[in-house]
Task: structure prediction
Amino acid sequence: MKAGTKLKSAVCDTEVMVIRLGEGTIECGGAPMTEDKVAALGELNAGFAAGTLMGKRYVDAAGTFELLCVKPGKGSLSVDGTALSIKDAKPLPASD
Amino acid sequence: MNISLILEMAADAAGDRVGLVCDGKRWTYGALLAAARGAAENIRKSGCEHVALLDESSEAAAIALFGAALAGVPYCPLNYRLADNDLAALLARIAPAVIIGDIDRVNRLCPDAGNLVRTRADFVAEAQAASADAPAEGDEGEGIAIQLFTSGTTAAPKAAILRHSNLLSYILGTVEFGVADEADAALVSVPPYHIAGISALLSSIYSLRRILLLPAFEPEAWIRLAESEGATNAFVVPTMLSRIIDKLEGLTADLSSLRAIAYGGGKMPLEIIDRALDLFPETGFTNAYGLTETSSTVALLGPDEHRAAHKSDDPQVRARLASVGQPLPTVELEIRDEDGQVLPAGERGEIYVRGDQVSGEYKERSALDADGWFPTRDAGWLDEEGYLFLAGRADDVIVRGGENMSPGEIEDVVATHPAIGDSCAVAVPSVEWGEAVGLACVVRPGHQAPSEQALCELIRDRLRSSRVPEKVLFVDELPYNEMGKLLRREVKKLFAD
Result:
């Protein structure tokens, strides 16, 4: 997998674009995300059900992984079971 | 990754919201995306290698930009103000191409059988017609999104290349998705072939801020459009701001909706920005510094810094009104000397930048060094707090007897003379020194031209004797291009005559 790859959740509507990645499995709602949409959505893990927000960037603590949510859903994002958090964006004035 | 993601996300999140207004026509994000998909289908079928626009701004610019991206073909907007022979040379470099706009001129200058030449209206209508059967999936976006010919103020135009990854890094790093209120609107009046015209489309769509396109800048039309559509944001080049201010003085107009004005693309005269800050006391001003090769902005001076500088008695704070601010958090910036050594604060050198948005790539070669730094060829310096000041182009340095001098330092001193409105220092050939300083000056209306001796004494007192011009010319005006860039090579010609 490389930056730019789009991944889909196997348990909800969430879709992300990978901006940065390292070694590890990217998950949503507790289940590994896949490049192709699964035929039937699986069950959402209650521990990863906080939801994703459109246009937010999600990162791990080390900054190795960065995912952009391009379609929101009910699951939340994790890598190897560790939850990702929303990247704090310092607001910049519009410059163009 | 593909920049089409920007429009796809906007259409997904707010498909029915109006995203673009031009000549009274309103386009929703959903309609723009449908047209872009149709355009992509037509571009793919054409087999062309570029998609060019030879036209003023309109919805066709946005549809061509995203259509080309979806088709995986570089988008290449051209400067319609170029003279025939210059434009013909560029058209030959991009054939076979889909070319949108002035079809008569294209067919006259580049009658290539491989080209697909369409008027704005036909291109848009054909894109809409093809949209129903066009696939939603686009190109992967591994390649070139945009090819822009640089303005070539010092040499022949170079084909600068921006990859999808450069532009998306810039947008994701500087704009928060969907942050604009539904009432927000950005007035875009820069031409479509300028990097600011492209980044304005991308930034506005990603923030879900409605775009108000003004096809050709004219101050009264700008004011009326801002007023009638309730523009909240605008980007202008310095000459536009100056003309807007002049026009406003004789008009009744309510521009109270205008919360933010960003400017860049050339040096802003202090006098103009001071007047603008007085005239728009509630508006936030942002000065943006960037280049085509850096996907637009790399440094900016924000609204609070403008207000602080405007009213400050502290000379260092006051001076910041002439600064382009601090680098973006996602961009590294250094000032280096000719040997590549990083210079400390206060010393002038060449500006180097590095970051994901920095392409530094031309069709022929990459200008990046081994560590990914891009030499901008702009000269500048940083103050103690990291504010960047520009000092002209590195190529404009005058080398007199082995001593390097920047035109900016001489012009800054000359600007303090009450009778001088504008000036330009260039290298003139000198038998004794190799090069010497030539100074072209414009006298302020209502003032007597100072003597050459008076100007030379002013420079000798403030700088060194080596900076004293060998030749001084008084001219009615200095040559600027339509974006407000001083054409130094033209000034050099004045001294040759």
